[in-house]
Amino acid sequence: MECTIHWEPDAGMAMLAVTGSGHTLVMDGAPEGGGRNLAPRPMETLLAGAGGCTAYDVVLILKRGRHDVRDCSVQLKAERAETDPKVFTKLHLHFVVTGKGLPQAAVERAVALSHEKYCSATAMLGRTAEITASVEVKEAV
Fold first, then answer.
1. Could you tell me the residue ranges of all domains in the chain?
2. pTM
3. Is the backbone peptide bond immediately before 42 cis, with ω within 30 degrees of 0?
4. Which CATH number fits domain 42-139: 1.20.58.1370, 2.60.40.420, 3.30.300.20, 3.30.1330.40?
5. pLDDT tens by residue, the chain, 141 residues
6. DSSP annotation string for 2-21
7. Roughly what angle, to the nearest 10 degrees, separates helices 42-64 and 104-113?
């Protein structure tokens, strides 16, 4: 896996990331740090990546279990250390999964498997942060 980051000096502290798969992602800093608030902060991007990684796992696990999953969202809340490096110290992931006849236990199992076995992003973040999760299952209309 590769990624190249390029500073865009005409845009303050904006950084342009080009991934190995050929996609582009823009990041920026806070105004007090010289940024112009044009894009997410790098740490927000890291948090979003962790959410995407675990949501992907949960949906895939449920689909492989032949469950009728229709939607999945993850709301992430993070706390960071007060001193540099300001690593994540706590992460809470709230999963809202919608489907037809989805058993709560199956969704909870998928979340646990993602956290314990499959999600590389939360495995790395779990080395500095306490990670907790909650699950809400909704019936599709």
1. 3-33, 42-139
2. 0.92
3. no
4. 3.30.300.20
5. 999 999 999 889 999 999 999 999 999 999 999 999 999 999 999 999 999 999 999 999 999 999 999 999 999 999 999 999 999 999 999 999 999 999 999 999 999 999 999 999 999 999 999 999 999 999 999
6. -EEEEE-GGGTT-EEEEETT
7. 130
